[in-house]
Amino acid sequence: MTLLVHGIAWDGHASDGGSPALRVQSPNGERTAVPLGPADVLGLQVHPGLWCLGHVKVHGPADSTHVPCPSTARAERGRQCGRCFARDDSRLIHDFHRGGNVPPGLREYLMQPHWLYIATFAGGTTKVGTASGPRKWNRLAEQGAVHASYVAHAEDGRVVRLLEDLVTSQLGIVQQVRRAAKAASLLDPRPAVELSMINKQAAARVRELLETVQLPGFTIVEEQWQRPAFANAVCRGSTAEAPLFGAPRRHAYPQGFDGGGHGLLIESLSGAVALARLPDAGGGSVDGQFVADLGELKGRRIEFGPHTTELPALQDALF
Questions:
Q1: Exposed (0-12), middle (13-18) or buried (19+): which is 12, by Cβ within 10 Å?
Q2: Distance from first CA to last CA of the chain, Å, rounded?
Q3: How far apart are alpha carbons 199 and 174 in whole angstroms?
Q4: Angstrom distance (rounded) from CA 25 to CA 53
Q5: Residues 174, 47: contact at Cβ < 8 Å?
Q6: pTM for the full predicted model
Q7: Blockwise average pLDDT, block size 10, the chain, 319 residues
């Protein structure tokens, strides 16, 4: 069966480490989640092309409906066709605090409590972001943060986005980090102690700024985000915090997810970026570990099966 990939989602709670899954949609529009755990083998054939993922209608704080693309069209804007993009409620979120009009259901969602966080990724890049109350932990798990701190709790989504824009304008902390940059940084993550210090220092600067803000509707908080245990191995790296001798060498995944067969034995997952072994046709595995951005599968049509990844000649860097 050919399935449409909607991406990687992290469900559950920090207390149990969460549970990542590959969300897929069947031809009849039904969506299911394929769990991704330690030692799971992900074998699939990718069909060429990017396809529309449909659109979302928001009915309230914890109630939304996914509407499959009625014409099963090719993607034109991100992972949507033009028609679905125009009908998607979520595209209006970022203009709400600037006075933009939103449907009643989306307004109810945005008026629930939100968190302001500071997230640091494996290369040291740090961003400011927001998460609704129910998505407080999951949002950062799906972002692929290595370390993160909550710096404010806001009474609604308007206040939290005003604070987010203020942090960017006053401190220069970005609101987006490219997915490709996150994946590349996990080839050789900076030491955890260093990343933790970067995050704590950035969070302290933000809290100092927030103390000067004359805006009602928020409180400053000091709370650390709990990274899922399944992300630890890929976030640690293979040098500073793993044995120098005998540690597998990391390589970038050698194929794009824009077509062909792929086979990965998942060892760890940070956001949508996997640390994996590559099974070979003989039942063994290729030497080394591979960092693969499974986020590239979003909007692709796939079929599951006993597929393997075709490898070019690999050559370790000399220096």
A1: middle
A2: 45
A3: 13
A4: 9
A5: no
A6: 0.91
A7: 96 78 95 93 96 94 91 93 93 75 85 97 98 94 97 96 97 96 96 97 98 96 96 78 61 95 96 94 81 98 95 55
CA distance 90 to 102: 10
Report residue 285 as tokens. 């595995």
**Distance from C-alpha of 164 to C-alpha of 97, rounded to nearest angstrom:** 11
- Tokens 């989504």 locate to 157
Q: Would you state the structure tokens that stand for residue 224, as one six-digit string?
A: 């650390």
Residue linked to tokens 């992290």: 10
Is the distance from CB of 33 to CB of 18 less than 8 angstroms? no
Decide if 55 contacts 67 (C-beta within 8 A): yes
